[in-house]
Amino acid sequence: MTRRAVVGAAIVDDLRRPTRLLAAQRAEPSSLAGGWELPGGKVEPGEGPIDALHREVQEELDVRVRLGDQVPGPLTAAGAAWPLGASYAMQVWWAEIIDGTPEFGPEHQAIRWLTPDELYDVAWLTDDLPIVQRLEAAFRCTG
């Protein structure tokens, strides 16, 4: 079974020396509502993952971002992606906002900037936790 491609942005305040990560709280579907995640979404047919990530961040947060390095995940056959259940594989990139102020739309009920010490103050979706742990390790290396 092939996993459907999704993308996520680890949006930080500064790509070189990050001190905060932007988290988004899901509003829907009901099975995910209230859980926290990295902003992003599905890659549409005929769309590349980078284009999809820029589109999703613009749609969800009304911002434009500069992408940094990819955050490599364990699914090497899916572009170094992270498993989201059995059906999805998410590629994640570090990103910083270059235009706009993040505002959440209908997909989310809140957004929050988290310092490295606050990363676990929100209830991350289960499948996002390994990604957050990888991000935390990178935060600790830059601090």
Automatic annotation (TrEMBL):
BP GO annotations: DNA repair; DNA replication
Alphabetically ordered keywords of this record: DNA damage, DNA repair, DNA replication, Hydrolase, Magnesium, Metal-binding, Mutator protein
Keyword Ribonucleoprotein assigned to the entry: answer is: no
One MF term in the entry's GO annotations? 8-oxo-GDP phosphatase activity
Q: Note the superkingdom of the native organism.
A: Bacteria
| Nudix hydrolase domain location | 2-139
**Family assignment from sequence similarity:** Belongs to the Nudix hydrolase family.
Q: What is this protein called?
A: 8-oxo-dGTP diphosphatase
What organism does the record attribute this protein to? Answer: Flexivirga aerilata
